[in-house]
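Re: that backbone. Tokens:
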């Protein structure tokens, strides 16, 4: 694993955007696995800025998103399709038909999950998967206790995840209780993984995930077994990992 420690959120976002843009420049038809939430927004803003300057193009790029709330329309302001349009897709030249997000209104979640697994396979797999990490070590909506062998599946959100997402909805009762999510198996099959972490609140779980034992109780810990993982974080999030002896790249 390569670890890049940045002084602040802005420089961390720029570092992550550099890695994403290099992937697209090197392989224009890359399949990018994309994430939502507050952490990657800065990286997406940087990619938009470079696109607008003419430094890169997403015209041939394909994308698959990690997850989507079950029960939300893609037009709902808190849906992940809406998030991706507003924060990235509407501002670059990626083709809408090349962007893929799980259908939160699917009548059969089982059929939708099977469709998504087949879609990923039909695209040739994911070249670079972007991840964030929750306070309990979850990646996508894979919560503690979920099996590492799972592919895309319907998830019942934990109370801690519902609480963490309340800030986006305003009221706790408005947060969906279920989501459709890629599984750990989908994530681990990506050729490369880029994970972003920010803030002191993530310091303990980052250390547990990458210096502790591999356990379903810390889903991100499975990333220790992936051959090509890059962790990008700010000093607040990474200082305990570094203090524990994890080497840092320049």
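Recovered sequence:
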């Amino acid at each position: 694993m390569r670890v890049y420690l940045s002084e602040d959120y802005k420089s961390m976002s720029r570092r992550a955007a550099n890695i994403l843009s290099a992937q697209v420049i090197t392989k224009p038809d890359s399949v990018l696995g994309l994430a939502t939430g507050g952490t990657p927004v800065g990286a997406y803003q940087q990619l938009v800025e470079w696109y607008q300057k003419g430094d890169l193009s997403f015209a041939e790029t394909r994308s698959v998103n990690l997850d989507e709330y079950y029960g939300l329309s893609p037009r709902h302001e808190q849906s992940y399709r809406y998030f991706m349009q507003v924060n990235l897709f509407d501002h670059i030249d990626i083709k809408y038909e090349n962007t893929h997000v799980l259908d939160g209104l699917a009548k059969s979640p089982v059929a939708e999950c099977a469709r998504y697994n087949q879609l990923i396979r039909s695209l040739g797999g994911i070249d670079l998967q972007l991840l964030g990490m929750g306070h309990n070590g979850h990646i996508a909506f894979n919560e503690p206790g979920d099996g590492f062998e799972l592919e895309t599946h319907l998830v019942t959100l934990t109370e801690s995840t519902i609480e963490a997402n309340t800030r986006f909805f305003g009221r706790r009762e408005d947060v969906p209780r279920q989501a459709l999510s890629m599984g750990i198996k989908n994530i681990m099959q990506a050729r490369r993984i880029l994970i972003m972490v920010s803030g002191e609140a993530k310091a303990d779980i980052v250390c547990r995930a990458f210096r502790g034992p591999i356990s379903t109780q810390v889903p991100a810990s499975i990333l220790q077994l992936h051959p090509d993982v890059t962790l990008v974080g700010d000093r607040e999030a990474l200082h305990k990992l570094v203090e524990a002896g994890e080497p840092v790249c320049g």
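Residues 9-26 form the longest helix (18 residues). The mean pLDDT is 95.
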